[in-house]
């Protein structure tokens, strides 16, 4: 009975919660409260601006522009991350996070102000479409770019603050990340469905009026988090003085000028991508991640940001219903994250989840069939949402477990570099690869939707090519990539090379040491003149 209970979701969550001390529980409580408010506001904004773009952009290039705007938004997130990084060193993380979300709230009201000032009105009950203000639809590019910068600020800090709350304990970090992800997706699912209802009732030019409200609630909740381990420059100097090191000048090592730190951040970001690319492409342990992580993430974003809006607008005739479809996708992510949490002791590597993800991508082939028979009824949006649940289930399970794999492979400082973190470099390269892929292909493939609609009055051909064919090719690539790491030919491998083995006291000459040496040999033999990262000798 006890053993079966361990593998229930509630029992697992309770076990995780009890592993934190009182201070950590308090901080996690306020952090999760804020993250749920943040996700609710984000779903209202993303749903509104996506449907607003599909309705306002010229029908001849609707999805070409939508893809371009989405790509620019994600590129702007990198800029936001660079801008906010120096602030994290100057102020407590909770303060920077609260300020960042407040700036995001201000960015989201720009369109509300512009639309009202130019004559826009709330959608009247029973009206077929909203009453838009007299403003150029290309303003969406500006707003989406500015909000992308703010979004990048928040997303960067979201990845920093968990370590501040629970310290460097990898086990606690994984437990916290999994728990937060579940609540995050609960809010995301509710927010997506609520956003669709708000768009239908108020119009997509006003439906996100709740976004700044939710963001303010998030900022308020996050201010209750402790200052954690933050220390001011003055505090550090006082500690050095007490240790007899009062003559140490911290200013010599790092400039306190914010602009200088931004410049250093830009250089560091570029170097991280360069080092990360060399580490990924010269090591068997990581080379498969380019397909398993970056390509899989692109397919998931294309599913939600391109296929869902295109089907809702061109097939169902109501752009607001794309949020119902996204709601199904978010629910699938929730189930995927929960499954990884519950089965973490049974499925110890990301390979089984990634193979499931690759197979489930082919469900997209059902969209052309649905498009032939669909009527302009909301029930069809619900049917598509149901189809998206298993697709996003596979992606979320693979993504969560893959993040743990990357962290395990690099968190022990097995690889080091003079200027950048190995973990940060790999993640910077993989995420940048996804952004570039998404920015280019979303716009290019958006033209396929536009051209197909202009020529045939429907998007059946586009759903087969941009949808089915593209996803099947990606499925094959991801599936093949899962066989690259050592030990991956097993149906449910317990370890990939040295990652996942619970033998910290392994003797010299063991298979673990052999795999480590082989991983290093992959670099030297394949690229003898490019020393990627030095390996720390034990």
TrEMBL record:
Compartments, as annotated in UniProt: Cell membrane
Record's keyword annotation contains NADP: no
Spans through the membrane: 28-46, 66-88, 95-114, 139-157, 178-200, 206-228, 286-303, 353-371, 378-398, 418-441, 462-484
Membrane topology qualifier: Multi-pass membrane protein
Region (Disordered) location: 501-530
Keywords associated with the record: Cell membrane, Membrane, Transmembrane, Transmembrane helix
Gene3D superfamilies: MFS general substrate transporter like domains
Superkingdom: Eukaryota
Biased composition (Acidic residues): 510-520
One GO CC annotation: plasma membrane
Transmembrane recorded as keyword: yes
Name of the protein: Major facilitator superfamily (MFS) profile domain-containing protein
Higher taxonomy: Eukaryota, Fungi, Dikarya, Basidiomycota, Agaricomycotina
């Amino acid at each position: 009975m006890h053993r079966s209970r361990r593998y229930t979701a509630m029992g697992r969550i309770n076990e995780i919660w009890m592993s934190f001390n009182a201070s950590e529980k308090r901080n996690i409580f306020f952090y999760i409260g804020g993250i749920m408010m943040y996700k609710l506001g984000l779903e209202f904004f993303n749903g509104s601006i996506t449907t607003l773009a599909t309705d306002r952009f010229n029908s001849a290039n609707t999805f070409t522009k939508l893809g371009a705007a989405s790509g620019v938004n994600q590129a702007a997130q990198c800029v936001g991350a660079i801008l906010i990084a120096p602030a994290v060193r100057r102020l407590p993380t909770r303060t920077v996070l609260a300020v960042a979300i407040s700036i995001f709230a201000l960015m989201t009201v720009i369109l509300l102000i512009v639309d009202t000032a130019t004559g826009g009105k709330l959608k009247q009950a029973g009206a077929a479409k909203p009453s838009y203000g007299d403003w150029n639809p290309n303003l969406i590019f500006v707003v989406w770019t500015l909000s992308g910068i703010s979004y990048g600020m928040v997303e960067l800090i979201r990845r920093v603050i968990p370590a501040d709350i629970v310290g460097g304990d990898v086990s606690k970090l994984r437990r916290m990340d999994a728990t937060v992800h579940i609540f995050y997706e609960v809010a995301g699912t509710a927010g997506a469905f609520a956003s669709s209802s708000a768009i239908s009732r108020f119009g997509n030019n006003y439906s996100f009026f709740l976004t700044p409200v939710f963001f303010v609630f998030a900022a308020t909740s996050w201010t209750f988090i402790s200052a954690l381990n933050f220390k001011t420059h003055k505090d550090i100097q006082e500690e050095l003085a007490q240790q007899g090191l009062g003559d140490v000048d911290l200013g010599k090592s790092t400039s306190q000028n914010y602009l200088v730190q931004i410049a250093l951040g830009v250089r560091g970001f570029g170097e991280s991508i360069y080092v990360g690319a060399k580490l990924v492409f010269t090591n068997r342990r990581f080379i498969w991640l380019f397909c398993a992580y970056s390509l899989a993430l692109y397919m998931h974003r294309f599913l939600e940001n391109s296929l869902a809006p295109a089907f809702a607008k061109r097939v169902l005739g109501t752009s607001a219903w794309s949020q119902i479809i996204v709601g199904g996708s978010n629910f699938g992510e929730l189930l995927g994250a929960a499954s990884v949490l519950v089965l973490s002791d049974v499925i110890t590597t990301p390979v089984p989840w990634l193979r499931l993800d690759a197979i489930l991508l082919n469900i997209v082939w059902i969209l052309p069939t649905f498009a032939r028979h669909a009527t302009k009824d909301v029930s069809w949006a619900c049917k598509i949402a149901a189809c998206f649940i298993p697709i996003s289930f596979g992606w979320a399970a693979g993504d969560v477990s893959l993040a743990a794999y990357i962290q395990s492979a690099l968190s022990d400082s097995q690889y080091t570099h003079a200027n950048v973190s190995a973990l940060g470099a790999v993640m910077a390269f993989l995420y940048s690869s996804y952004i570039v892929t998404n920015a280019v292909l979303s716009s290019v493939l958006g033209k396929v939707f536009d051209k197909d609609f202009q020529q045939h009055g429907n998007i059946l051909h586009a759903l087969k090519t941009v949808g089915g064919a593209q996803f099947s090719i990606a499925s094959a690539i991801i599936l093949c990539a899962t066989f690259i790491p050592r030990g991956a030919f097993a149906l449910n491998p317990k370890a990939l090379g040295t990652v996942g083995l619970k033998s910290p006291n392994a003797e010299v000459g063991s298979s673990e040491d052999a795999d480590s040496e082989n991983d290093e040999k992959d670099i030297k033999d394949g690229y003898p003149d490019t020393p990627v990262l030095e390996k720390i000798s034990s």
